[in-house]
Specification:
Pathway: Amino-acid degradation; L-lysine degradation via saccharopine pathway; glutaryl-CoA from L-lysine: step 6/6
Domain Peripheral subunit-binding (PSBD): 214-251
Function: E2 component of the 2-oxoglutarate dehydrogenase (OGDH) complex which catalyzes the second step in the conversion of 2-oxoglutarate to succinyl-CoA and CO(2).
CATH superfamily of the largest domain: Chloramphenicol acetyltransferase-like domain
Structural class: alpha+beta
Domain Lipoyl-binding: 1-76, 109-184
CATH class of the largest domain: Alpha Beta
Keywords: Acyltransferase, Lipoyl, Transferase, Tricarboxylic acid cycle
Strand content: 25-35%
Number of strands: 27
CATH topology of the largest domain: Chloramphenicol Acetyltransferase
CATH architecture of the largest domain: 2-Layer Sandwich
């Protein structure tokens, strides 16, 4: 007997609602076949079967709220053989459609599935196909690239053969368990397999196009309480299922329209002359760019964001770096940069002002006895923030190695979801692009972000004399709901002191 439990739901998510059961007690299930769908306040999570067998008991019914690792159901192992017959009996039409596609292949076929997308990610968009139907592919050769709202994922071929069918074209949004394509081990059958497969899959849109889909229980409850017609709500779940967030959006839409009619009226784009229009290019925003835009705007709307500024004399840091950079590279195999100094200085300051390293959770303030440092990195597809975990326990060399490794993975689009989650504070270096001063936007749910800028020689009054010093402006954006002005200024002053006299870091002063 195997227990089906609630999987990890994502950062700061502790419970979910059982939205839909796709199976009932007594049904035969295969390995990785979807059993049910959970709904949190952020995402929808599908729960697959870890084993083949029979669903013997459902413990958590639809509509129930369950915590992480709660028992959902139990599956009796060893009864997987009758699975095909069980599926053919209730759905003879579907079985009839599948048979020609299988026989037309003329050999073994392999399904290309969506790979694991990461914690809390339930769907992706097919951005690029590197192969077309009829192409021969080798095992592990890249077939296509998927794009989630956080990272890009390459899909390698699970076997050598011929690509006989593409089920998800470029631009299609697919869920985490979707089939992308079909491979055949016999190249000669490719031409016959592709048309047959296309015909077999053609009725699928019609089947899913109907609204004969059960909405999420929580969504039905909200719509019933608010008197909203479900037919007027556009669902974002599987097959158009209305989810909790869809219902909430529908309830808030009338109020927003009534209180702010002006923005709705100004939403359409300004008129453009035909001559200008012919020279414009319209490109759909990537999912990553859409997510960046949404999260930055949410940060502005949610946090009481404020920015305080200071400047730091980089003379001592630059002198120390120049003195030891060759020896550092020889011993540790990595270059000594400025980011390790700033990371160590921020860790030092966060110990004195812990609220900058905290976050708000409802009516609670969560103080973190660790520093998971986010280092913002620009990539060809947008801004990402890989996280260096336990940076407070690392030395200069370990920090530089981690920054170099994660920076390279970010530029190559190889970062995993886990590598971008859990940060407690962020450093953003706009100086590499020549920025002299800016106000960084918080990376929610964090309460602080430090903005670094360009190092520029400026005349400074020191000891009654005007001298030229390499200066950098620093900016700390913080959530004023939990960080007072005194704490923010103290944090920035401590960073300044540590950088202007790096020996303070060694003495913990």
């Amino acid at each position: 007997m195997s227990e089906i439990r609630v999987p990890t739901l994502g950062e700061s998510v502790t419970e979910a609602t059982v939205a839909t059961w796709f199976k009932k007690p007594g049904d035969t299930v295969a390995v990785d076949e979807m059993l049910c769908e959970l709904e949190t306040d952020k995402v929808t999570v599908e729960v697959p079967s870890p084993v083949a067998g029979t669903l013997s008991e459902i413990v958590a019914q639809e509509g129930e709220t369950v915590g992480v690792d709660a028992l959902l159901a139990q599956v009796s192992e060893g009864d997987a053989a009758p699975a095909p017959a069980a599926k053919e009996e209730p759905a003879p039409e579907a079985a009839a459609e599948a048979t020609p596609a299988t026989s037309s292949a003329g050999g073994d076929t392999t399904d290309v599935m969506v790979p694991t997308l990461g914690e809390s990610v339930s769907e992706a968009t097919v951005s690029t196909w590197f192969k077309k139907v009829g192409d021969t592919v080798a095992q592990d050769e890249m077939l296509c690239e998927l794009e989630t709202d956080k990272v890009s994922v390459e899909v390698p071929s699970p076997a050598a053969g011929t690509l006989v069918e593409i089920l998800a074209e470029e631009g299609t949004t697919v869920d985490a368990s979707a089939k992308l394509a079909v491979l055949s081990s016999e190249g000669g059958a490719a031409a016959a397999a592709a048309p047959a497969a296309s015909e077999a899959s053609a009725p699928a849109p019609a089947a899913s196009g109907g609204k004969d889909v059960e909405n999420a229980p929580s969504a039905n409850k909200i719509m019933a309480e608010k008197g909203i017609d479900p037919a007027t709500v556009k669902g974002s779940g599987r097959d158009g299922r209305v989810m909790k967030e869809d219902a909430l959006k529908a309830t808030s839409a009338p109020a927003a329209a009534a209180s702010a009619p002006a923005p709705a009226a100004s939403a359409p784009r300004a008129p453009v002359s035909s001559d200008d229009a012919s020279r414009e290019e319209r490109v759909k925003m990537t999912r990553l760019r859409q997510t960046i835009a949404r999260r930055l705007k949410e940060s502005q709307n949610t946090a009481a964001m404020l920015t305080t500024y200071n400047e730091v004399d980089m003379t001592e840091v630059m002198a120390l770096r120049n003195e030891y950079k060759d020896l550092f590279l020889k011993k540790h195999g990595v270059k000594l940069g400025f980011m390790s100094f700033f990371t160590k200085a921020c860790v030092h300051a966060l110990k004195e002002v812990p609220e900058v390293n905290a976050e708000i959770d409802g009516t609670d303030v969560v103080y973190k006895n660790y520093v998971h440092m986010g280092i913002a990195a620009g990539t060809p597809t947008g801004l990402v923030v890989p996280v260096i975990r336990d940076a407070d326990q690392m030395g200069f060399a370990d920090i530089e190695k981690a920054i170099a490794e994660k920076g390279a993975r970010a530029r190559d689009g190889k970062l995993s979801m886990a590598e971008m989650q859990g940060g407690s504070f962020t450093i953003s270096n706009g100086g590499v692009y020549g920025s002299l001063m800016s106000s960084p936007i918080l990376n929610p749910p964090q309460s602080g972000i430090l903005g670094m800028h360009k190092i520029q020689d400026r005349p400074m009054a020191i000891g009654g004399q005007v001298v030229i010093r390499p200066m950098m402006y620093l900016a700390l954006s913080y959530d004023h709901r939990i960080v007072d002005g005194k704490g923010a200024v103290t944090f920035l002053v401590r960073v300044k002191e540590a950088l202007e006299d790096p020996r303070r870091l060694l003495m913990d002063l």
